[in-house]
Amino acid sequence: xxxxxxxxxxxxxxxxxxxxxxxAFQHLHQRQIIYxxxxxxxxxxxxxxxxxxxxxxxxxxxxxHTYTTCGTPEYIAPxxxxxxxxxxxxxxxxxxxxxxxxxxGESPFTADENFQxxxxxxxxxxxxxxxxxxxxWADLVKRLCLQEPSERLALRPGGVKNVEDHKWFTxxxxxxxxxxxxxxxxxxVPAVKSSTDLQNFDDPSSDFEWIFMxxxxxxxxxxxxxxxxxxxxxxxxxxxxxxxxxxxxxCWGGAGSGGCPSxxxxxxxxxxxxxxxxxxxxxxxxxxxxxxxxxxGSPLFGGxxxxxxxxxxxxxxxxxxxxxxxxxxxKSDGTVVTWGPSALGGDKGKVGTLLEEIxxxxxxxxxxxxxxxxxxxxxxxxxxxxxxxGQVVTWGDGRAGGDSYSDKDLxxxxxxxxxxxxxxxxxxxxxxxxxxxVVTCGNPKAGGDAGAFKEKLQEGxxxxxxxxxxxxxxxxxGSVVAWGxxxxxxxxxxAEKLQGGxxxxxxxxxxxxxxxxxxxxxxxxxxxEEVNRGSDSSAVEASLQSGVMDIRATDSxxxxxxxxGSVVxxxxxxxxEPGYIAREHMKxxxxxxxxxxxxxxxxxxxxxxxxxxRRQFGVxxxxxxxxxxx
Length: 630
Known about the structure:
Structural class: alpha+beta
Distance between the termini: 26 Å
Number of strands: 31
Protein name: cGMP-dependent protein kinase
CATH topology of the domain at 11-206: Transferase(Phosphotransferase), domain 1
GO molecular function: ATP binding; protein serine/threonine kinase activity
Oligomer: single chain
Number of helices: 12
Domain AGC-kinase C-terminal: 172-227
Organism: Polarella glacialis
Strand order of the largest sheet: 5-6-7
Shape: globular
CATH superfamily of the domain at 11-206: Transferase(Phosphotransferase) domain 1
Domain Protein kinase: 1-169
Helix content: 10-25%
Strand content: 25-35%
């Protein structure tokens, strides 16, 4: 529509279409669904001119953070570029970009090559060039595109109402209630004969979808069905599951880990699957569109939910799995269901009674059932649930922070308007309150006790990174506090090196690489005299001093993508020692970087791909052989 009509710069058009997207995002986010693919091409007009959001191929049901880098480069939020994990906040960033494009005709981060786009995204919206006389719409864009996800306009207290009350809408007396009732006249109504008139579309027969997938493992049994229509691929230690856009699920790999569902389970996976969650030790759980949950794989690690089967027949909204095979399902009526290793959180114990009391209180207050869990986190031996009232409850091994029912001091400590909670493998939790304070519990040697750093964590903390046995907190003034196992990232020396801010942290078997806000990389962790797992980056230190925009890790090596399109790697094994062909292609033109357990994959600006590492974990072939739409 914008290509055929002179609508760029028209505030009535941009305002109306933006409002339609706001309502779409509000609907999705209330159901914990991230869209992740906003762009003009995915917005269609109905017969009355109302804007519809389409193409949910990248949408995902998410509790907390997810880590897949996807979407259109100009619309990707900075946290996704860094690979630091993202939330619903990425959609509001993309809405700001959309408003900018509707008003100016181009993205604020437009560049000739993707790596240049990502570099501009990293600099932020303040570095973008706005028209000299931009009106209130420019302020809305800036408030939606703040670097800190939690500060974006719709994520602040008040939520979507903050967007509705913004001056760009109020100054035009925009009637949101008329939009909701569809009584508002759209600024443009397409000329169509009927709801089935396709004159404004290209010939459907000329349109096709080609999906190039990088698969790990022996998928010959399902290979023919993996050539197109795949939406998501997940894995546990020995098996894989591919969710297709038609709602079917395909599995392959180790039969004992869920690679070959039983004759009883297989028919249930033919249609209606909306999410699949792996248990890394060896099981899968699938959430279906009717709210039921199906499990299969190792019964020791969540593959057998027989004990709670009756509770998983309907109403499930969220599905979560810990690193040790404990599953948690939260339901629309407020019920919380758990299964898996009982001593590690599979049995809620007395906390179950507390959760039921909270649920009943909410039902009495609201007059209806309500999902009471906002976020879930786990250690290797316990589960933490952040409830909608801001308190955190934990269950599992009390030594790992999992006993907020019996430990009244801990319960009181965790009832403090928490914004987000993190867990580390070593058995500790850290919770960030809305006023910027940090509360910890669990194994003191893994960060469960901040010790001498408690005073520094009383206020001003804006984000936390969790390592395997330590935490790193970044404060609003750019200062950094680290605590926990000093050898594994919890040392004051490391905190000193990180002053100024941290953007991302990746781990490789006890070694860590931390990307700083200034584009440099700091490494730490276990120093093995026989094998360098990546904690020693001295061989490439000069290349890591500046200009790094992303870092990734395999199980023995690290790779850093720089703003000039080059890649630097270090550590041990094949993933740290690329062959001649890969080395040549790492010199320039790389715009995205991915990692599996044993290999790296680079995507270049011309759409080609190259890989290096252990062959069974990567891709064979030259960039020319791998070239295609990516």
